[in-house]
Design a protein that fits this description.
This protein is mainly alpha-helical. It contains 18 helices and two strands. Strand 1 and strand 2 form a beta hairpin. The radius of gyration is 21 Å and the shape is globular. The structure holds 4-fluoro-L-phenylalanine (PFF). 4-fluoro-L-phenylalanine binds next to helix 1, helix 2, helix 9 and helix 13.
Length: 447
């Protein structure tokens, strides 16, 4: 990538874009959130609805975001203003920035926890399967802050080349390691039940709430609904194939989520743990798996190191969305912007960090039917804001930008998209908005 570093850079190659976009998409959403969300929502039926949402909502919105970014060569607020210079639509751009900050404020807490596990595994032999309970709230704040600083360093541009070069090697390594852990898990006695639970849908578990969770998870996992792919698309050159790149990112991201499910659930059942343990599911199950492996400590250290990096390429894209606005539209310097954005995120995120581990009033408070500040943030930004952002973007594209414009932006570099252009327009105009609106309305108690 030449530079979302200084000024308006462009990806030097298609591979650069796919790597960065896949880096944004693949992260804790796949490996931490997908398993626990599937665990809380009944397994196979959730997975099936999730896959349908990825195909029917995620892929169309992915192509839309990238094409709007590339057509305008601007980040969310600027892109919307370039199409419609006046009126309330630019509010959608601001919503993207606020959502980015909201997500980063709890996402980096989990990423900090992953780093803490890495440090633990690297320093000592971890035999205790319940290491999660050994952490306290202030440690969580410290690791959260450390992770934000790492993100700042990358977004400032200094490490960008390095990170790109490394992620080419380290991400495939993460996949290989996951395959190894899967192999270990599925041969444990009792693992078959976990596989069945994950892969055989039990439709009695299906209801509108499960559908909302699956839909929100699809947007979150693909980094959609808040302008991250739009921003990355804005650094894409007119020659690069949007359809090809977008499909690859969607495929790869989904593959990693399914592999994460295969890594966790056979072990959950074999080890007699609860699939609906909630957000700390992987932090409880994986140490138990590693404890039973020869060389498990090393595997644990390497796994949490690689997962930290996967999380870093996602937090980078979140901070990039927030920062790119201040840099492109307000003319702030990159350094000033990223430090201010990260400082604000830290302030907003401290309650989430305190609520994440240990006992604190932040962990037990109840707002809007959610227990704890962390879960409130997750619900507000992932379950409500991302689908709402995607919904509004579809309406914007249909009635303001124009789907002819959008389709011709994709077609100009993706001749292979010709046959799919009509169904794509149908999905963006009808299927996505109606589906998202109905599910969101049901969750907000409209009916
Ligand atoms: N897609 C990331 C993950 O699955 O971990 C999370 C994320 C990154 C969501 C960037 C939204 C975003 F803009």
């Amino acid at each position: 990538m030449s530079a979302p570093g200084s000024g308006r850079g462009q990806w030097s190659s298609q591979v650069g874009f796919v790597l960065a976009a896949a880096g944004s998409a693949v992260g804790l959403g796949n490996i931490w959130r997908f398993p626990y969300s599937a665990g809380e929502n009944g397994g196979g039926a959730f997975v099936l609805v999730y896959l349908l949402c990825v195909l029917g909502l995620g892929l169309p919105v992915m192509l839309l975001e990238i094409s709007l970014g590339r057509a305008t060569q601007k980040t969310p607020v600027g892109a919307i203003r370039a199409v419609r210079p006046y009126g309330p639509w630019k509010g959608l751009g601001y919503l993207a920035i606020i959502t980015g900050l909201g997500i980063l404020s709890f996402y980096a807490v989990i990423a900090g926890q992953v780093v803490a596990y890495f440090v633990d595994y690297a320093q000592r032999v971890v035999t205790d399967q319940s290491i999660f309970s050994a952490y306290n709230g202030w440690e969580s704040v410290v690791f959260f802050a450390v992770f934000l600083v790492l993100t700042v360093l990358v977004v400032m541009g200094g490490l960008q080349r390095g990170i790109e070069r490394w992620s080419k090697i380290l991400m495939p390594l993460l996949l290989i390691l996951m395959l190894g852990i899967i192999l270990r898990g599925i041969f444990l006695p009792g693992a078959g039940e976990g596989l069945r639970w994950l892969l055989m849908p039990d439709f009695s578990k299906l209801n509108l709430h499960v559908v909302l969770e699956a839909m929100a998870q699809a947007f979150f996992s693909l980094s959609l609904g808040m302008g991250a792919m739009l921003t990355y698309g804005s650094y894409l050159s007119k020659k690069q194939d949007i359809f090809h790149c977008g499909t690859w990112v969607v495929f790869f991201d989904t593959l990693v989520a399914v592999l994460a499910g295969l890594m966790i659930f056979p072990a959950v059942f074999a080890l007699g743990q609860q699939p609906d343990a909630g957000p700390n599911l992987i932090f409880k199950v994986l140490p138990a798996v590693f404890a039973g492996m020869t060389g498990g400590n090393l595997v644990g250290a390497v796994f949490f190191f690689l997962l930290s990096l996967a999380a870093l390429t996602s937090t980078v894209s979140l901070l990039e969305v927030i920062s790119a606005y201040c840099i492109d539209e307000r003319g702030w310097s990159r350094a000033r912007t990223v430090w201010i954005a990260a400082g604000t995120t830290l302030l907003v995120g401290v309650p989430s960090a305190l609520a994440w581990v240990g006992a604190s009033p932040w962990a037990t408070m109840r707002i809007l039917g959610r227990e704890g500040f962390f879960s409130l943030m997750d619900f507000a930004w992932v379950n409500l804001s991302l689908p709402f952002g995607a919904l509004m973007l579809c309406i914007f594209a249909t009635y303001v930008w124009g789907l002819d414009q959008a389709a011709s932006e994709i077609l100009s570099s993706s001749p292979g998209f010709r046959l799919l252009a009509a169904p794509w327009r149908f999905f963006v105009r009808w299927v996505c908005p109606i589906f998202i609106a109905v599910i969101l309305a049901s969750q907000l108690g409209v009916f």
